[in-house]
Task: structure prediction
Amino acid sequence: ASVGIESKGGDVETVYNKYITESYVIKPSGEIVEGVSAFTVDLKKELAKIEKINSLKGMLEEKRTSPFKNFLIGIFGQKEINASSIEAEIKKEETDRLLPVYVCQHDDGNTYYIFPLQGKGLWGPIWGYVSLESDMNTVFGAIFDHKSETPGLGAEIKESWFGDAFKGKKLFADDLTFKSIEVIKPGSKPTSDYNVDAISGGTITSKGVEDMLMSNLEGYIEFMENKRN
Result:
């Protein structure tokens, strides 16, 4: 659905086989992982890796910006965590990530790349798919869903009007720096290629979508750059 194709009569497999011409798994380095099917990647486990990476980065930042806390750790005899050890753990977790890619050959003659997403909303898991045009920058389509967000509020992320707002948005700035897409309070900023309006009354879920896009898609940066070149 992120590429505007719907299965009719429940024949999902036929539609998939017709339009998805390739699927594979990559590492954040952009290299393809041989012998691993995109379907076998556990996105919940991959989300746990992202959360661990973010936690480690937070620890590293705190260590660098809180010398007084480090001093107290030494005074009270607590074991100090070495910054290089944290950096090594971050690198390991990032290297271990498995990132599925689906390639769609559309009826319009164009090729689109589909990336699955997994994140957290206010009350539970949220997920979705984003498809990019062959420039590896422009969003062709997006769909989102959830497990237990509030009806009429955060649950609105599953509505087509919310996903449609992402169409045509950009992931990279003019200098090709990765920006992702910001989900903002309506009227808080001028509309741009890099933001969409949040759901009224669903601020935390909307923020969850924004975080999900950033944390999932940044793993594909090298792959996107390689395809672009």
Remarks:
- The chain has a mean pLDDT of 91.
